[in-house]
Specification:
The chain is an alpha/beta fold. The chain contains 13 helices and ten strands. α2 (47-54) links the parallel β2 (34-41) and β3 (59-63). α10 (243-257) packs antiparallel against α11 (260-286).
Length: 331
């Protein structure tokens, strides 16, 4: 039987959430033929044992080390057989029929629709604003610098996160997150999936930019819904919840898509912003509104950004990376 969708889930120490995600797929798939591929990035919480014992139909790829989100997804993509590839976070729970609705939407206009995403909801049922526009200078300046604190209601931050729109109708989305993103495999075979120079952050932003530059269009399908425990898929365990690594990803994105000069200019903007934050923080420490420990932590984080030094590290050598995957495949 031909496979409609290859679902790819990259897991790192999210045993409980992964179990709930996999359980939700029995109803979430509806009537589509699917294969489920879980790539475990060196978890130590028993995730691989849980998948083997409780979900024998899942194809498990177990890495000895954490090779990064981008690399693990690429690893699974090389073995995917579906007409569509659905990237799904382990901290998601798919609503009944959601995957089938995404497939039906894309099948309706094969030439015009390259990919689709679902409405993401918080556990309390409210809508998450993870669907964004691609980075542009006006968004970066009013979201990633002190200008956001000075102008908290500025229109550019609202525009980036599409806060003035509604998610009740089909709409084109420039940058849906990889927490839930379905793309035609035929398209990905031409563009590639993730650039591994973005190991944790901005790999999905880079993918969406490449798809847009190639003339492909991505859409939000409001009839498909996914509950998303935002950040619980491992990001929150990174230093400062990954905020510094995210900005480093933004710098790399600018270098790749806007050129070295734009990347240098962005680095200067972020470095000036760092100085302003630390000076302002020192004043707050002096008047007792912040602790010295806070300032030291903030200084370390900002210095890491200025040095473009990510907290995530790939496996230490190529031999370790090449031998990282121990595949246990079952259907």
């Amino acid at each position: 039987m031909s496979i409609d969708v290859s679902l790819i889930i990259v897991n790192w120490n999210t045993n409980t959430l992964l179990r709930r995600c996999l359980h939700s797929l029995s109803a979430g798939l509806g009537g589509v033929a699917a294969e489920i591929i879980v790539v475990d990035n060196g978890s130590t919480d028993g995730s691989t044992t849980m998948v083997r014992e409780e979900f024998p139909h899942v194809r498990l790829m177990s890495n000895r080390t954490n090779v990064g989100f981008a690399s693990a997804n690429n690893q699974a993509f090389r073995h995917a057989a579906g007409r569509y590839v659905l990237l799904l976070n382990p901290d998601t729970e798919v609503s009944p029929g959601a995957v089938e609705r995404l497939v039906q939407f894309l099948d309706a206009e094969p030439a015009a629709r390259a990919g689709a995403t679902a409405v993401l909801r918080n556990p309390d049922g409210t809508v998450q604003h993870y669907h964004k526009r691609l980075p542009r200078w006006r968004y970066v300046l009013f979201v990633e610098t002190v200008l956001r604190n000075l102008f908290p209601r500025n229109p550019w931050a609202r525009a980036l996160y599409m806060l003035d729109g509604t998610q009740e109708a089909v709409m084109e989305i420039e940058q849906p997150p990889a927490a839930c993103l379905m793309v035609r495999r035929s398209v990905l075979e031409r563009t590639g999936l993730f650039d591994e120079r973005f190991p944790i952050f901005y790999n999905d932003v880079d993918l969406c930019r490449r798809l847009k530059d190639a003339g492909h269009r991505l859409y939000l399908v409001p009839q498909a819904e996914v509950l998303h425990h935002g950040g619980a898929g491992g990001v929150m365990r990174l230093p400062d919840a990954g905020s510094t690594d995210s900005l480093i990803g933004l710098l790399r994105y600018y270098r790749k898509h806007e050129g070295p000069a734009a990347a240098v200019l962005l680095w200067l903007v972020l470095t000036i912003n760092t100085i302003l934050v630390l000076v302002g923080g020192a004043v707050k420490v002096a008047i007792g509104r912040r602790s010295p420990a806070w300032w030291r932590t903030e200084a370390g984080k900002r210095m890491r950004l200025a040095l473009v030094r990510e907290s995530f590290r790939h496996p230490v050598d190529e031999e370790a990376h090449a031998s990282a995957c121990v595949m246990a495949c079952r259907r």
